[in-house]
């Protein structure tokens, strides 16, 4: 694996800007759900960094759970219309206030499928909190309640987001120069 500096086109969102926005999102969620218990469901693996930072800024009783999904057609950089649950929840979400925590929404297919599935399990409420949103790429409508940043149509990595499973550990969001990236 190459050093990320060899293919980093630009730092799109530096660490301090990410952390400031996540602090604001945590405060917003705390206000909106004051007096309620919430369940945050993180979609592995991209959402992990965001979840762990976000919950430090939420001041209402909360539990966390994890799900993993995969698009048909593994290895691509875009999801297709169908997703498969590869790790399901360990708990019931019936009558719970659920917030789905995602790293990025692109076409919207992943979250549309997850939402459709979770709605059948009767939560008290269900909403989406995403760190990044590539709004212009949307193919299916998904109701997003909390957005960290709206970003342009560029392939990004770092802060949970991978390129071929690596670079999730970087504390900022960077843009890949695909001409300089050799897998
Ligand atoms: P969607 O189903 O909305 O098209 O795609 C969502 C998933 O695609 C994300 O959870 C993420 O795994 C992946 N994805 C979409 N855009 C990017 C990107 O710019 N960088 C990375 N690393 N993953 C992305
Ligand atoms: Mg994701
Ligand atoms: Mg990925």
Automatic annotation (TrEMBL):
UniProt GO MF annotations: guanine phosphoribosyltransferase activity; hypoxanthine phosphoribosyltransferase activity; magnesium ion binding; nucleotide binding
Matches recorded under Gene3D superfamilies: 3.40.50.2020
The entry's keywords: Cytoplasm, Glycosyltransferase, Magnesium, Metal-binding, Nucleotide-binding, Purine salvage, Transferase
Principal location class: cytoplasm
Subcellular location: Cytoplasm
Pathway: Purine metabolism; IMP biosynthesis via salvage pathway; IMP from hypoxanthine: step 1/1; Purine metabolism; GMP biosynthesis via salvage pathway; GMP from guanine: step 1/1
Catalytic reaction equation(s): GMP + diphosphate = guanine + 5-phospho-alpha-D-ribose 1-diphosphate; IMP + diphosphate = hypoxanthine + 5-phospho-alpha-D-ribose 1-diphosphate
Names of required cofactors: Mg(2+)
GO BP, one annotated term: IMP salvage
SUPFAM superfamilies reported for this sequence: PRTase-like
InterPro entries given in the database record: HGPRT, Hxn_phspho_trans, PRTase-like, PRTase_dom
Keyword presence, Lipid biosynthesis: no
Family per record: Belongs to the purine/pyrimidine phosphoribosyltransferase family.
PANTHER family: HYPOXANTHINE PHOSPHORIBOSYLTRANSFERASE, HYPOXANTHINE-GUANINE PHOSPHORIBOSYLTRANSFERASE
Protein name: Hypoxanthine phosphoribosyltransferase
Source species of the chain: Leptolinea tardivitalis
């Amino acid at each position: 694996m190459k050093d990320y500096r060899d293919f980093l086109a630009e730092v799109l969102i530096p660490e301090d800007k990410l952390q400031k926005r996540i602090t604001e999102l945590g405060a917003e969620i705390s206000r909106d759900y004051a007096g309620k218990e919430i369940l945050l469901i993180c979609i592995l693996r991209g959402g992990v960094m965001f979840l762990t930072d976000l919950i430090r800024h939420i001041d209402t009783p909360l539990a966390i759970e994890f799900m993993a999904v995969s698009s048909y057609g593994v290895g691509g950089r875009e999801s297709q219309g169908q997703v498969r649950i590869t790790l399901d929840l360990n708990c019931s979400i019936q009558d719970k206030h659920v917030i789905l925590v995602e790293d990025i929404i692109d076409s919207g297919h992943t979250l549309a499928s997850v939402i459709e599935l979770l709605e059948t399990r009767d939560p008290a409420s269900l909403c989406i909190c995403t760190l990044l949103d590539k709004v212009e790429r949307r193919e299916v409508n998904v109701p997003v309640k909390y957005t960290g940043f709206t970003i342009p149509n560029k392939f990004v990595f770092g802060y949970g987001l991978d390129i071929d499973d690596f670079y999730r550990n970087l504390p900022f969001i960077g843009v890949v120069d695909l001409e300089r990236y050799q897998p």
